[in-house]
Amino acid sequence: MADVLYTGPIPAERGGGELAMGGGRSETSALSGAGEARGLTTTQNSQRPNACCFCWCCCCSCSCLTIRNEEERRKRRRRKRISQDTKMETKLEPCPKPSVEEIRMWSQSFDKLMRNPAGRNVFREFLRTEYSEENMLFWLACEDLKQEINKSAIEEKARSIYEDYISILSPKEVSLDARVREVINRKMQDPSPHTFEDAQLQIYTLMHRDSYPRFLSSNIYKTLVQGGSRSSSES
């Protein structure tokens, strides 16, 4: 008997299996494509500049520029203030003329200079030449506040000190860090003779470390020492 070629439909089981296999290949291709897409995206992202780092650098640069600009503005305000001396306190502390021994003692320590009224007057004159007389004025105002016992007078003097030396709008603003300013703002809600204690110490330290060494080598102090030495030798 001759062989008969089968031309009928493919059995369902066989077709289903081939379709399933085909579906598996399609799914595998889809997953492979998705993986390649993710890999491409990752590669592209890795090649992009880090936006956070870029922004941070910009912010850092802006902050530095802001600080420098603020310092320049503060210096200009101080120079302008010198040209308007009528608004500055020019009255010095009443005191007798210092002796030669007193003048020489001022070079031994900053404490000895600041405890002597004549020494404070001379040092204040030197600070004026450096556009920083407000440091001494602020320190003296704090000392005066510490002696006050009347409640209303304390509040009035504290408010005056704040407006003259703490406010950023004042041409006589002293240089204080953020922590001390925060303390002052909190204490100003109920002022006391010690409201500006931390600020006074910070300004005292600033004058000691920054201005005092230059004062000792200044012509103002050297002239006093030489003048006192000549007077003592003549007598």
Characterise the protein shown here.
The protein is mostly helical. Helices cover about 70% and strands about 0% of the residues. The chain has helices at about 10-45, 50-80, 100-105, 110-115, 115-130, 135-145, 150-165, 180-185, 195-215, 220-235. Helix 6 runs antiparallel to helix 7 (about 150-165). It is elongated and about 55 Å long. It starts with 11 loop residues before the first helix and ends with a helix. Residues about 10-30, about 40-45, about 50-70 and about 80-85 have low confidence and may be disordered.
Number of helices: 10
Radius of gyration over C-alpha positions, nearest whole angstrom: 39 Å
| Beta-strand percent range | under 5%
For the biggest sheet, the summary is:
none
- Based on CA inertia axes, which overall geometry fits? elongated
Low-confidence stretches: 12-32, 40-46, 51-68, 82-87
Secondary-structure element sequence?
A: HHHHHHHHHH
Question: Briefly, what is this?
Answer:
This protein has 235 residues and is an all-alpha fold. The protein is 72% helix and 0% strand.
